[in-house]
Fold this protein.
Amino acid sequence: MTRRFKGLIAVASVTVLLFACVGFGVHAASSENDGAYRQLGVYSEVLQRIRSEYVEEPNFDAVRNGALHGLLESLDANSSYLSPSEYKAFKSHKSDYHANIAATFSKRFGFAAVISVMPGGPAEKGGLQTGDIVEAIDGKSTRDMSLAEITSDMIGERGSNITFSVVRPRKAEPQKIVIARDDFSIPAASDKMMDNNTAYLKVISLNKGKAQELASKIAADTKSGAKRIILDLRNVADGDSTEGIAVANLFLDHGNITSLKGQKFAKQDFNADPTKAVTKLPLVVLVNRGTAGPAEIVASSILANARGDVLGDKTFGVGSVTKLIEVPDGSAVILSIAKYYSPDGKAIQDTSVTPNILVADADDSDNTADDGTDDNNDQPEVKPSGPKVDTQLQRALAVLKNKTS
């Protein structure tokens, strides 16, 4: 056994033991420790077999990085390993650049998945869609990229291009999409008065200050005669969890909004402050598969406290607090250390939010962005004519029609 290989086994063994301690706790029983050591023996045996029997001399740096990437991703989509070079690029992108593509990502089936794209942003203009599975970014398979690396790569110099290889239904081959990074300002919340004195509120992101924006609009709409409220959180996946809590509090004058807890993270309960509630009007919250993170905190709290109806599709499922840990060799680990829980005790990241009124999103059945031909027979596809009907919004209006505060 070469000195380099012995070193690799030693480093890998220590690394696996480190993560075993993180995952199972330092006060595990002796039988559990014995199990951890047995797993180290299995890991060393696998490495030895790779060295002695693989078809060619393996690249052990790639083997180690791949093992660590897989180890972290087996925990959850938000946990990541960054090699020294990846961590250097990660820090550089965060400090040196501000242009981005205005889209939110996660990992699904091992690949990058688009949770949502912001209206009017570079991603939408370039053709990227909510629900897209991204096979490769700039020629690199997203299977080999952590979520931290994927999100970091979205940031860069203004005007620089990023190339996506996107897998979509009814397409035999991945579709190439090129998007130019650009400065993007998140639009303010919008509102309008609809039928039956219903105020319709729409946000793009729950970034800082959004709760105050919504509070002002609710006050103005109420003064104008609003008797009911629709809060549209569809495709809202970006923002700050504290802002999601603040938005929920606008509609709740009592009860739990969310809880935060982890193995070694002291439980925190976030309860509604009655002085921050601004309305008791009947409420419907619209959600879909592009609803994630802070927006899920809002939806789950409204639903669990029976404050209103949640209507649409099941949400995506994002909700954890992460911690970045630097490793002496220049690499870094990003670990989920706590999860957000709905008032009924369900981890939002694990269970998502299921509406009490399920209405499919019309866009879900047409998330193909094709060129008007069928790949199987090259015949023109017949597409519906006329304006698209927002079935979820229409159903929300119907639900609220006869409700009064």
In short: Residues 84 and 328 are 10 Å apart (CA to CA).
